[in-house]
Structures are given as structure tokens and as C-alpha cells.
Design a protein that fits this description.
The structure is a homodimer. Chain A has about 450 residues and is an alpha/beta fold. Chain A folds into two domains: about 1-50 and about 370-425, Urease, subunit C, domain 1, CATH 2.30.40; about 50-360, Metal-dependent hydrolases (TIM Barrel), CATH 3.20.20.140. Helices cover about 35% and strands about 25% of the residues of chain A. Chain A contains 14 helices and 16 strands. Chain A has helices spanning about 75-85, 90-105, 130-145, 175-190, 215-225, 235-245, 250-255, 275-280, 290-295, 305-310, 325-340, 350-360, 395-400, 430-440, and strands at about 1-10, 15-25, 30-35, 40-50, 50-55, 110-115, 145-155, 195-200, 225-230, 265, 285-290, 315, 380, 405-410, 415-420, 420-425. In chain A, the strands form two sheets. In chain A, strands 3-2-1-4-13-14-15-16 form an eight-stranded mixed sheet. An eight-stranded parallel sheet of chain A has the order 5-6-7-8-9-10-11-12. In chain A, helix 2 (about 90-105) packs parallel to helix 3 (about 130-145). The mean pLDDT of chain A is about 95. Chains A and B meet through helix 1, helix 2, helix 9, helix 11 and helix 13 of A and helix 1, helix 2, helix 9, helix 11 and helix 13 of B.
Chain lengths: ~450, ~450
């Protein structure tokens, strides 16, 4: 079935064009031309490709606004996060993730990279199907209309040389071989299904001893799927890693085959010169999550340097303190301004590319996030007549003025998800309130 | 005329309470009790006092999204800002400021501190009434339903020891005596009108030679009105000031009588230990404008230290890269997290107080920004059921989850301004597009 959309303005690979006709055939873009709207469905404002949220922990959404009292650091925040993780069961997680993904859809996100480690029941007892939680996340994404890269995460230790304990027991498979058996089974379940990628993740060098990294990397290479890892988010991780292995986290990952164009290093905040070379020369994606990195007091990573040297930039909302990739995109530039006291580190189009095409590619969907024939038909339309965006235009409108609240229409893989700022599933706020209430 | 509002949740001085009845008599709060809604008008979500935008240059709104191409710094940005200033006439400024203030109202702002220096016609030719531009700003605020502190700004030089040139000629009165004559005339025009304060401002030590500062300070003291000044926003200002006067900008202001509880130092980004003592010990307000300070690559000022030592914090949207005081409030905390790699510098209630009561006080309205009997009846209601705010509560909901888009109802001085996110004047986005289009 073919549908034609007329975009008042559209961000095409060559720049913003006016009066753009996009013919969609099924879930793909068939043709792009310019002309009068005629009988086409009108998309007012600026239409951009679907946004990719390259790093998500869906359940962290339940913590929004709830961890802001008192002093503390990343590690005290982590304790609160474990308390939420302890309360989730498959039904509750399905309900919560569906609502969170609906919030993402409202923000123009058409693909999520879910960094998934909450695999097992309380005490680490596997569910009857040990991928029950993973299936719940895939279902949640499909219900909400997003494609998903389920990054099945290997999580074996509670810190360098420390056994898992408490809630962490739910994350662990014992060793990387057993992780791989479970992950293979999950991959089998979705083989040939184009809206789902079963990728792999090394949680971090804190949680995966070096000898277990190759099996995870091997899964990624064998299936040609993404491989993600948290890297050097906090200085304490670097200090402990160097003490343990006489190497930084990046170096440990490199030595065990976990860097490369299929890989994504998430955060990459505290790097030395060698780390920067290893990441860039290997073409590893760098997923920055600026609103989380602010929230968790991580610091400001060397995004521009990494990008200049060859590491593509992607963006994630991570802990979901905020779900707004426009906010993430501008935070990259604005954080570098605060750090350097200079403006103009990134062009708006570079940041929008990070939020769209590069993000999708890092999640195993290289054929999405671009308005070109053959790509996934993801069309995200932003108001240019709201109080926030009035008077702005071009990629700058999206990156420097818009918020998630300015997205009025979302089409994901040809399916209309959001109309006039409302998700087809219903009231996302009510869904979130209900799901979060259930686990509080 | 008395109207009673029922607030589902309200942020009172003692904390958030549920089922709060606020009786409004004319433009003031008459009584606050708790109880069932009965026939009261219902305000769902969280109701907070009116927000005060303590630092605004209304016309800068026309630059949003338009200065983000290419490299550059504060000084190249300033050139672009002058280009907009050059195109404004009284009608155009009235139209633009009305639309900008409507955007502020939509964001829950009920009072604006307008730092006003665009006094004269092209080439510095005074209008027939030399306060024509000031009157336009007051009228714009009244049309949009905000109270205004018009901070009439003395602006005499184009830099240390440099004459005004180009667009700057529109800012200058020649000397502080002539500035004072004009400002007195403006004050006369609004004497006894409770919704307008005619305050004073020293643009900066760059623009006002020390010998002209006392006359501006004297105006503030004689009328008991606010006195604002830009202070140490950029390192270059400090360097040149020390070179010229062997004193920092704060020290120059102090030596010429411009600090004190009626005063506000705007930005206060680059301070030394003596500066911090002088500002704090004098009880000078510190107006931080974090979204502008990010945008202009200013840096992160020592807000927490100043506050701890006695300088009350206020917030402003300044250049209006963003108009969202919730975003400003959380940026204070989040910037300090990035700088220190620790969480928990500010309690949410402290930041909300900066955005409300302290801001109003710094603008000469000490009887606003608090939900107490006798205060101005400014009631700002925030949705707690949007995708952004769902699952949050208390002051944390406002500071760490809400955006301007979550404000659904605004009552300012007893007058209903915003209902279901719409300003009574009409479509603020359309007003902005029209006003900005006119001067581009």
C-alpha cells in the first residue's frame, strides 16, 4: 500500500528542502520529489528522519525526579536504581517499557537500543523461558511502534573481582558461555524479523572479566549485530581497572576484540590519549548520553575529538532523566561550550545526523535514519509554530530550539504512531503513572 | 471579586500539600486552607507561585536558532545581536516583546525584569518622548499579563575607554546625569502603579565608566527600586577591567555604591575570592542565566558558594535561547555536577525558591512568588500526567522533570492568562513568527 506525504520542510541528506513529497510503500520510502501537496497527507513544520535512541535502560524511567534529594554520587544513585530493578517482574516490565517506549515515540524516536541486563527472577532464578524479560521488551517496543536493538548484556561480576550480590543476581548468567547459550536462543526467536536486532553487550569491564569478553564479541561478529559496552563513565572505574589489569577499560576491550565499526562505547567520558586513538582508529561508535551524564555527575567526554578522528557519534537518553534527543544533541555542543568557553564545536546537521542515521547504524539498522528512497519510512514532524520554535528554521530549529513537546506527528516504518502529539496507544502519561505506581 | 481555586497539589512555604484551597480577592491571595474542591475552580497537577524571570533582553528572542552556525565566541554573537537591535522601532518592539512575554506567560512566568538599553532611534536620535521604547515594553508586559521591572539601563561607552559606535549609539544617553533625567521622567509616568517597577541598571563596567555609576545607584536608593548590572560574564571583561582600573568589575561596582540587597549581579561567572566576599557580604542578589551562559560559552559561576555565604540566587532566561525557568533551575544543579563530579548541590526547593520568591524580590516585588495570604495571586499549575512528569511529585517534579510545555494554567495577579496551555491573547507561536518575520 502506497501513501504519499507532503512535507512543508524536510531535512534531506543535502539539507532542508521545501515542499517535499515522500512516497511510502509499506514500511519503506519509495520515492522523494518536490511539488505541490495535491492529495498527499500534509506534514507541517520540519520533517526529519526517525530518531534513534542508542542507549536505553527502560526501567530507569521510574527513577525520574526520585533520586534528586540529598547529596551523593553515581554509586549512591546506583543503589536506588537496584531497588527499582528488584521490584520488576515480566508483566510489570512489559507495562513499564511499553509506556517508556510510547514516551520515546512521542519524542520522535523510532528505534531504541535497549541495553538489557535484568534477565532473571529474584535471586537469579531463571524464568521458565530464560529470555522472558527480553521478550517482554521486544513486545513493548512493537506495541509502542519502535524498532528495537535488544542488546543482550553479559553481566557476571559485581565489581572488579567481586561476586554478584543482592539484586545483581538477577543480571548474571554465571559465565559468558551460558550467556551465549541464552543469547543464541533469543536470536533464534527473532531470526528474519526485520524490526528486531538481537545484539550483544559487555556491561562494563567492572561486570565482565576480560576472559569472558571474547565470547560476547564473537556473538556480535558471527551474527553481524551490534556490540555495546559502558566505558569509563566514572573515574573510579578507570582507577580500579588500571589497578586490576594495568590497562584502561578501552584498552581491555580492545585487547579482547570488542572494538570496531559494529561496536559502541557508551559514555567514553574519561579517556586518555591512547584510549582516544584505539576508539577512533577502530571506527567504534561513541554513544554520548549528555542528560544522564549531567544527572549522574559523570563529566564531559571528548566527543568532538573522537568524532574528528573517526569515531561516529550517537546519542542516548540512558537513564531517562529526560527523554528528548533534541536536548541530548544540543547538550553536546553546549557542554563543550561550558568546558572550552568557545562556541561552534558542532554544526547542527552533524548533531542531527548523530541522533538519526548514525544512531540507527549503531543499532544494526543502517537503512534507517535518512530520508532517501529504500530507507525505513520514519517521518518525524516538528512544529515550527510553537512558542519555542517560532522564528527558527533548518537543522538549527530541531537542534537548538525544539523539544520533544514540539513533535506533532510520527510515522515509524510506515505506521502512523503519533498524531497531533498523541500516541495511538492512548495517553502515555497515564500509562507511565500506572506502570510506575505499580512498582513503587 | 473573590474566586476560590482548588489545587490538587500546591507548593506552600512549608512544602507540598494536597487539596489546597486558595481564595483570591482581586489581585491578591486572601486565604489558604485545605479541603474538598466543592465549587472551586480546579487546578490539577502541581501549583506553584508565579515564576520571576529576573533577567530578560526581550529582543534577543529573535536570535533563537539563528546564531548557531559557524565558530565564534560571545563577541561575534554580540555583532549578530546588534544587527537585530538596529532594525527595531517602537511598534516592532512592542509587537515582538508582547509575543515574547506571552511565551514567558505560557512558561509560568508572571514577572519579568527587562534589562532595557535600546532607548533611542537610529544614530542615537531620541524619540519625541525619549522613553517611547520603555513605554512599549511596559505595554507589552501588561498586554501579556506580566508584571514588569523595567530596569532602565545606563549605557555610555562601547568598551573600556571606547566611544559608542554603530547600533550602540541607540543605547546611550551621553552621561549619567542625562540618563537620570530620562529615567526620572519614566519613573514619574508609572508612580503608584503597582504592577510596574522602574528600576535602574548599570549595563556593565565596560559600558559605564566608574564616575557615572554613583548616579545610577543613587536613583535606585532614592526610589528604593532594583539596581542590576552585568558582572564578569566573560574573562575578557575581567582582564580589561583590571588593566584599566586595577580592580575587578565587582570591586569597581562595590567602590561606587552599586552592591547591596537591592542590587543584582547578573552572571557573576568569573569571580575571585574577594569578589565572592563583596557580593555575599553585601547581600547582593546573584542572577544566574544558565541556558544563556551555556549558549554563549560563558562558563559556570560559583552559585552555590555565593548562596551559602549570603547572596540570594535568582534566575533569568536572558538571551532567550530558551524560555523555561525549570530548565534554568535544574541547569544550576546539573552544571555544578558536571564541574564537580558530585550530585546534590542544591535542594529542589532552593532552586524553586530562586525561580519564584527570590526572583520577585530582586525585581522589587517582595510580596510575590509565595503562596501566602496577602501575596500577589500568581498561580502556575504544572501537569503531573504528561509523558515528562508522570511518576514525579513535589518540588522535584517542577525542577527535575517539568518543562515549560507542562504548564497548563497560569493566573497572574488574579487574572487568568493561560488555560490548557493557551494564552488568552491567542497563538503565541504565530505572534512570534509574525513579529520576528517583521524585523528579519
Amino acid at each position: 500500500m502506497s501513501v504519499t506525504y507532503w512535507c512543508e520542510h524536510a531535512w534531506l541528506p543535502e539539507g532542508v528542502a521545501h515542499s517535499v513529497l515522500i512516497e511510502v510503500d509499506g514500511e519503506r520510502i519509495a520515492e522523494i520529489t518536490q511539488g505541490d501537496p495535491g492529495a498527499a497527507e500534509r506534514l507541517t513544520g520540519l520533517t526529519v528522519p526517525g530518531l534513534a535512541n542508542a542507549h536505553s535502560h527502560a526501567f530507569h524511567r521510574a527513577l525520574r525526579g526520585a533520586t534528586q534529594t540529598g547529596r551523593g554520587d553515581f554509586w549512591t544513585w546506583r543503589e536506588q536504581m537496584y531497588e527499582v530493578a528488584a521490584r520488576l517482574d515480566p508483566d510489570g516490565y512489559l507495562e513499564l517499557a511499553r509506556a517508556v517506549y510510547a514516551e520515546m515515540a512521542l519524542a520522535g524516536i523510532t528505534c531504541v537500543g535497549e541495553f538489557h541486563y535484568l534477565h532473571h527472577g529474584p535471586g537469579g532464578q531463571p524464568y521458565d523461558d530464560p529470555n522472558t524479560m527480553g521478550h517482554a521488551l521486544v513486545r513493548a517496543a512493537r506495541d509502542a511502534g519502535l524498532r528495537i536493538a535488544l542488546l543482550d548484556t553479559c553481566y557476571l561480576t559485581g565489581g572488579f573481582g567481586a561476586a554478584l550480590s543482592g539484586t545483581q543476581l538477577r543480571f548474571g548468567d554465571g559465565d559468558s558461555e551460558r550467556w551465549a547459550v541464552r543469547a543464541e536462543r533469543l536470536a533464534d526467536a527473532y531470526r528474519g524479523q526485520t524490526d528486531v536486532q538481537i545484539g550483544a553487550a559487555v556491561h562494563s569491564v567492572r561486570a565482565v572479566p576480560p576472559e569472558h569478553i571474547p565470547a560476547v564479541a564473537e556473538f556480535s561478529h558471527r551474527h553481524a549485530v551490534p556490540l555495546h559496552a559502558h566505558v569509563s563513565e566514572q573515574r573510579a572505574e578507570n582507577v580500579a581497572c588500571v589497578e586490576m589489569y594495568a590497562a584502561t577499560p578501552v584498552q581491555v576491550l580492545h585487547e579482547h576484540g570488542a572494538l570496531g565499526p559494529r561496536s559502541t562505547a557508551v559514555h567514553a567520558t574519561h579517556l586518555n590519549g591512547v584510549d582516544i586513538e584505539l576508539l577512533s582508529q577502530s571506527g567504534t561508535h561513541i554513544c554520548m548520553c549528555p542528560t544522564t551524564e549531567r544527572d549522574l555527575a559523570d563529566g564531559i567526554g571528548p566527543a568532538r575529538t573522537l568524532h574528528d578522528r573517526g569515531a561516529p557519534l550517537t546519542l542516548g537518553s540512558d537513564s531517562h532523566a529526560v527523554i528528548d534527543l533534541f536536548e541530548e544533541a544540543r547538550a553536546l555542543e553546549l557542554n563543550e561550550r561550558l568546558a572550552s568557553q568557545r562556541r561552534g564545536h558542532w554544526r547542527a546537521a552533524e548533531l542531527l545526523a548523530a541522533a538519526t542515521g548514525a544512531g540507527h547504524a549503531s543499532l544494526g539498522f543502517p537503512d534507517a535514519g535518512l530520508l532517501v528512497p529504500g530507507a525505513w519510512a520514519d517521518l518525524v514532524s516538528i512544529r515550527l509554530d510553537s512558542a519555542r520554535t517560532a522564528g527558527t528554521s533548518g537543522a538549527e530549529a530541531a537542534v537548538f530550539a525544539a523539544t520533544a513537546a514540539d513533535v506533532h506527528s510520527v510515522i515509524s516504518g510506515g505506521r502512523r504512531l503519533v498524531t497531533q502529539g498523541r500516541h495511538e496507544l492512548g495517553d502515555a502519561g497515564a500509562m507511565l503513572n500506572e506502570a510506575i505506581g505499580r512498582i513503587r
